[in-house]
Every structure is written in C-alpha cells, then in structure tokens.
Amino acid sequence: MSGKVVWHDLNTRETAKAAAFYGELLGWQVRSREMDGKKNDFLYLGEEGLGCLVKQDPKDPMPAHWTAYVQVDDLDAAVKRAQRGGGSAPVPRMKITDDDAFAILKDPLGATFAAYFCRKPLPPGYPKQGPGTFCWEELLTTDPKRMLGFYGEVFGWSHETVEMPIGPYHILKSGDVHVGGVMQMPPGVQAPPHWLSYVAVTEVDKTAAKAVKLGARQHVPPTDIPGIGRFSVHADPQGAAFALYTSAKRA
After folding, report:
1. What's the fold here for domain 5-118?
2. Regarding beta strands 134-141 and 158-164, do their DSSP bridges make them parallel or antiparallel, or are they unpaired?
3. What are the start-end ranges of the E strands in the chain?
4. Domain 134-247 has CATH 3.40.50.1820
5. What is the pLDDT averaged over residues 142-152?
6. Whether pTM exceeds 0.85
7. pLDDT tens for residues 3-43?
C-alpha cells in the first residue's frame, strides 16, 4: 500500500556494537547478504526483515540515526513533490535491484526520511506487528502545520488532530490506516526537527530499564499516554534516538 512505512535503516559508525545492543535489548538478529558485490547487514526478528545496518562515513557530520522508508507508487514523482514543497533530496534515487529503489529526502525544516518503490507487491501482512517490531513514526518539528501540508503533498497523507496533555497531536493517515503522528517540538528539547521510530515491546518499564543498563541514554522515562499506552524515549549507545511503546490494550 502506498504511504505505508515498510523499512528502517540504522545509520551508525559502529555497526557491530549496534547489532549487539539491539540484539540484547529486542532480540533482533543480524544476517549478512551480498548485494552488488558488497556485504550488507540486515536486521531480523525471526524471519521478519526489519531494516539494515548502514555504516556511516567517519566524515559524515550527522549523528547516528534511524531512517524510516515510506512506500510510494512512483519514486521520481515523490522526489519531485518533495523538492517542489521546499524539501531536498540528498540521495534522489538509488537502485537496490532491478525491481526496487529508494531516495533519501529531507523536509523543508531538515527532518530526514526515505521514499521506497518496489515493482513487485510486498508480501501480504508485511511488515508484521507485535513485540519487537516497529509500530509508529513521529515527527517532532517546529512548524507542524507546514509539515502536515508538505507530507500530505509528498505521500498523500491526510490527518486528524486530537488534544493531548502536551497539546495538539496530529495523526497521519494513509487512507484509513494510521501511519504516524506530528507534534510541536517540546519546550527545552535541544534537537533539530526529526522523525522518531517507535518499537513495540511487552513491558515498557522493564525494556527501558534494560536499555539504560546496556548503555542507552533515557530522554523520556516510561510515561503514560492516557487511554492509549505507555512509552519511553532513548538514545542508543551511539546516539541514535528511538522509542519504546506498549499499547494499553496489550497491557
């Protein structure tokens, strides 16, 4: 389905250390595959592919970070829409195989994301849901209204707004499917606009405590979202931000 988040990359300088951290924390395994004569390390939960470990160039000024990939029907058209809306395309098109390709993009305020095109239909039910899988994407930005218009144009996302204790929260929708949220950057957060990826876990408190024990920094301690669930926000030992989430229904 176009507009659905289907993949994640972890850009980091120490891929082996990152693999060990997330393997211990979330049970992810790393499997190497050769593509175009180069070895690539992919993240799996059982047989489910979750993403790729991308080794950053030491000269890359960006800190370690996760990048979410959104499926599109026409990659070049999506790139043009992003550029027309004031965004940029650090990687306008990169071929993976004869059947798929991606582009790395930035919105007008600097948040990085990716568009992905696959000629063949993805397997039914992909990506799977459940503990250990990505379950939500959240844009923290300085201008939510502008970004709602930008992403609506690029991916065709609509949105609905709900009032939360932190203020208005804008839920992004692809058709009737909720794909993520947009919110105002909280006061005091010293970070540029960015996307934050959430991973579903059985018990946020236990997993958050384990993350800290394994060397992660805790930005937001386990916190309730009334009637919805419980979450925490961390940076892994190399600085890549991620969030943990348990649904109130699961709890």
Report:
1. 2,3-Dihydroxybiphenyl 1,2-Dioxygenase; domain 1 (3.10.180)
2. unpaired
3. 5-12, 29-35, 38-45, 48-55, 65-71, 88-95, 100-106, 112-118, 134-141, 158-164, 167-174, 177-184, 194-200, 217-225, 229-235, 241-247
4. no
5. 98
6. yes
7. 999 999 999 999 999 999 999 999 999 999 876 667 889 99
